[in-house]
Amino acid sequence: MIRALYIGRFQPYHNGHHYVIHQIAQEADELIIGIGSAQMSHEPTDPFTAGERVLMITHALQGLHKPLYVIPLEDINRNALWVSHVRAMTPPFHRIYSGNPLVIRLFHEAGIEVHRPLMYERATLSGTKIRDLIAREERWEEYVPPPVVRVIQEIDGITRIRALNQDDGDDTGFEETTDHV
Ligand code: ATP
Ligand code: MG
């Protein structure tokens, strides 16, 4: 019995993550998905709450037919203790899958088996790129599983991302505003 852990921020959950998880599912009996930086939301680089990300992942993986545990993981800002923190929050696991060099290093040093999945269509399948497309009002829907499109629409995520990416108008200049006084 192999229980595997996959960790990401999933801002948002996209087709690259989806592809990797289906690969992992062929090698593991149960899956744990750890949502990193769980405390973050409403920031341009981290627009969605942990709960919203749980919803995206759970809906997208409804058809997986394997036990799935989606666990939010808050940052503790202490790398040397982070693996223990993750282990305290997740069901016991036998191996971890990650492409993040720090995550790989920390789990390797803790003596845990680490697998490094290959990047899949990284030119388009990246959270940063997808958030950018949403902010610029370009097409993004094809890069995430359809249930994720529905969740982002349900929570009005498009309006949120665009609002978070607007500046506060400071640079319109003091003189211009005094003209109207
Ligand atoms: P961001 O640009 O916001 O960092 P991201 O696309 O890198 O988003 P993360 O949530 O940071 O997504 O990554 C979670 C995990 O998914 C990491 O291990 C990362 O290497 C992996 N990953 C991200 N994009 C892909 C992809 N296109 N193919 C395979 N793995 C991916
Ligand atoms: Mg990343």
Provide an overview of this structure.
It is a single chain. The chain is built from 8 helices and 5 strands; from the N terminus they run E-H-E-H-E-H-E-H-E-H-H-H-H. The protein is of the alpha/beta class. It has one domain: Rossmann fold. A 5-stranded parallel β-sheet has the order 3-2-1-4-5, sandwiched between helices. Helix 2 packs antiparallel against helix 6. The longest helix has 13 residues. The chain is globular. The N and C termini lie far apart (72 Å). The chain binds adenosine-5'-triphosphate and magnesium ion. Adenosine-5'-triphosphate binds next to helix 1 and helix 5.
Question: What is shown here, in short?
Answer:
This protein has a single domain, classed as HUPs (Rossmann fold), CATH 3.40.50. Helix content is 41%, strand content 13%.
Q: Which percent bin holds the helix content? A: 40-55%
Bound heterogens, unique: adenosine-5'-triphosphate, magnesium ion
**End-to-end distance, in Å?**
72 Å
**What general outline do the C-alpha atoms trace?**
globular
How many helical elements? 8
Which whole number gives the mean pLDDT? 94
Rg computed from alpha carbons, rounded to a whole number of angstroms: 19 Å
Proportion of residues in β-strands: 5-15%
